Each structure stands twice: as structure tokens, then as C-alpha cells.
């Protein structure tokens, strides 16, 4: 470990499988001091388990997908990075949070790799992975972070070596609300339900249908909104009319759902920015790909004299490279996870991690 | 209220590996995750190049579920060994460069 700080090239392989994406990525850190080191993506390969329209992904099937594809994706990542095993410094895996069976399936493979290659193993918090990758790609130095995905909804700001949670979803995650509404409408899950809702919403907007607006202090609630959206969808299928006496379409529903829930996210993010005195917003997580969310957040940030930082689907949507990056940052400070302690956990809060690599 | 659980249903497996190193890798990779149910007990050990697996459960149903899940994980470990062990990757790299 002592010589790692003197090593000018450090390489980590990261394995991610907390939900329906299996991702393996390889990252290179160059430079001797933590503050001046640069990060280069050597490879970032992903394969997604897509369930049929009207259905979600179940833990058992998702874990089977990850087991079936692990070796293939790992070989692709190694080939794309074009390096030899001795050059790799550590193996990183997602410890949590996420779905138990998929997490465990990838952890078993990551442990096997670490043992075969005789490399240290590093357990990574999935949320911290998203945040660190977002910071590295966008260059946002001290942003308020909005982390929005199928399993997580959090407004986060950094203070004293912790990513502090300022606000979060009280029930289901914002992405879960979108995913499940896509199921109600039986929209395709390929490439992602949220993406297809976003495309459909662009055709809507003739009416803004009334949905509950559920911001509670710094927190949000999405399950009641989903229930109401489902009711409206049933009403529509039965030939019901909108508030103006005219029929409305699935596109109008998608538009109304997006406008309502994104307005809630913008509101709590703005309050967090005012509280910590930051004008930067970094959006990470799968829902962060949504360009309408980025646009609404950008309008708010511009009014505050700031800007929004977002990444594209390669880094927003779950991937292996973010696990490699966050794991390598921790490993550079001397952190590693002994094999016998390399368990997974479905619940692992963002603020449990000591962020030793930041001042 | 708490009655002592008994584990009348059991299964013992001896999984042969090419060498002791691989048996030991499988042992370390597979023994970390605890059984999710208190109705199942698992005990793993490696003796030379053999992985010794002992499952005990309260019912045959629990035993079947746990052992099936173990086989899923074991198959993954074996595939990683076959395709991603250091010598296999090196051979693949040489092949790519020469051919």
C-alpha cells in the first residue's frame, strides 16, 4: 500500500450489478497527489436485462442475467482496455444499496476474480459511485447533487468528509414511479422505460392533467402521484375526458407526470442550494439522463446565477466505471475490503461512507 | 415460544477441483454470503483439491432452494475460473498478438 501513493499509474476494475444493468469498467488514475490526479476511462461495458412491456425486473431473473453475462462482459472490458492483469491494482464491486440477489451474484464473481488475480477487493457504495463519476466527468467541484434513479431519490451536499442527505423520497423512488407508470401504459422497457416516457411526453402537453404535488419539507413522496396517474390512465382507457371535456392521450399523461415530479425535484434542489450557498447542481442516476429534467433544473440554476452539470447515458445509467473510480479513490487512501467481509447489503446509506479522499 | 430448530434434512457434496488453489478460491468466494434463512445451515471447507459442502435444513423444500442457489453461484465461480484465470487471459493475449 505504501508504494501505491508513489505509483503514477493506478488502475481499477469495477463490477456493478445492483439493479438490472450489469456493468464492468476499467479506470486509470494518473499523477502522484490525489488533488492533481487525472482519471481516464479505459473501458466501460454494460449489458441490460430488459423485461417485457407491462412487467418489471424480478431479483431472481436479474441475478440469473448477471451470472450469465459476467464473463462475456468482463472479457469485453479487458479487451477494450488492452492491458494485462499485473497492471490492475484492485477489483471494486458494488456492496450496496440495491437488490440482494443481483448484488450477490456480481459480488461472488468479483471475489473470484480478486482471488484468482491476487488483487485487493474494494466494496463501493453505489450512490457514492454515481456522485464521484459525475464530479469527474463534469468537473463540478462543489455541487449540490441530485441523485435520481429507479431505486434512489436524494438531494445531497458534501460537508466534512460525508455526502450529507438533505432531502429524499419518503416512499418509492422517482424512477420507480416512472418505471411503474410505463408498466401501466405497457410501454416498452427497451432501452429503458423512463426514456420511452420522455419520448412520448414530447408529443403530449395539450393539457396539464392535475396530479398531486407532494413535497414535504425537503422530502418528496411519489406513490400517491403514481396511484392518481394510474387512475387517470384507467379513466382514459374507458374513454373518459380531460378537464376541458376533450379526450386525452398517453402522451398527455406522460407529459403531466414528468412536469409534476420534476417540478418537485427542482424545488427541493433549489432549497438545498440556498441552504449551502452553492450555484452548481450535479444530476446523477438513470433519471438524470432525462433532458426535460435537465432543462427544468437548468432554468432554475440560471436564475440563481449558476449552472447544471449532467452526464450522458454512459455515466448516468448504472455502470462499472463509476464503481471502479469511487473504489480506486478509496483504495488510494488505504481502504480495502477483506474477502471474508465482502458481503452485500440492500440498505447502505450514502452518508455512511467516510469520504477520506476529499478535504 | 422459541422452540429449538432441528435440521433433519441434509446434503453433502464433494466438488473436485483441478488443484488445491482453485478449491480454496471457490471456498473463499462462496462462504462469505450468509444463508438468508435461519432454517438452513451451510458449512464449507476445502480439503486438498476438494470443496466439501454440507447443507442442513429444517425441511426438504428449504434444502432444495438453498442447494439450487448454491449451484447457481458455484457455476459462476467455475466459469470465471475457466475463462478469466491469469494463465487463460495470458494465453488469450498471446493468441491475439500472434494470430
Automatic annotation (TrEMBL), chain A:
Q: Where in the cell is it found?
A: Cytoplasm; Nucleus
The UniProt keywords, alphabetically, are:
Acyltransferase, Cytoplasm, Metal-binding, Nucleus, Transferase, tRNA processing
Enzyme Commission number, as recorded: 2.3.1.234
- One Pfam family name from the record? TsaD
- Domain Gcp-like stretches: 44-324
One GO process term, biological-process aspect: tRNA threonylcarbamoyladenosine modification
Cofactor or coenzyme needed: a divalent metal cation
| Record InterPro entries | ATPase_NBD, Gcp-like_dom, KAE1/TsaD, Kae1_archaea_euk, Peptidase_M22_CS
Against SUPFAM superfamilies, the record matches this protein to: Actin-like ATPase domain
> Which residues does the record give as a divalent metal cation binding sites?
126, 130, 147, 318
Recorded GO molecular functions are: metal ion binding; tRNA N(6)-L-threonylcarbamoyladenine synthase activity
What the record says about family reads: Belongs to the KAE1 / TsaD family.
Q: What is this protein called?
A: N(6)-L-threonylcarbamoyladenine synthase
User: Which species expresses this protein natively?
Assistant: Cercophora samala
UniProtKB/TrEMBL annotation, chain B:
The protein's matches in Pfam families, at most eight in alphabetical order, are given as: Pcc1
Localization per Swiss-Prot or TrEMBL: Cytoplasm; Nucleus
User: Which cellular component appears as one GO term in the record?
Assistant: cytoplasm
Which Gene Ontology terms describe the biological processes this protein takes part in? tRNA processing; tRNA threonylcarbamoyladenosine metabolic process
Q: Which controlled-vocabulary keywords does the entry list?
A: Cytoplasm, Nucleus, tRNA processing
Instruction: Name the PANTHER family on file.
Output: EKC/KEOPS COMPLEX SUBUNIT PCC1 FAMILY MEMBER (PTHR31283), EKC_KEOPS COMPLEX SUBUNIT LAGE3 (PTHR31283:SF5)
Report the sequence similarity comment from the record. Answer: Belongs to the CTAG/PCC1 family.
What protein does this entry describe?
Transcription factor Pcc1-domain-containing protein
Organism, by scientific name, is: Cercophora samala
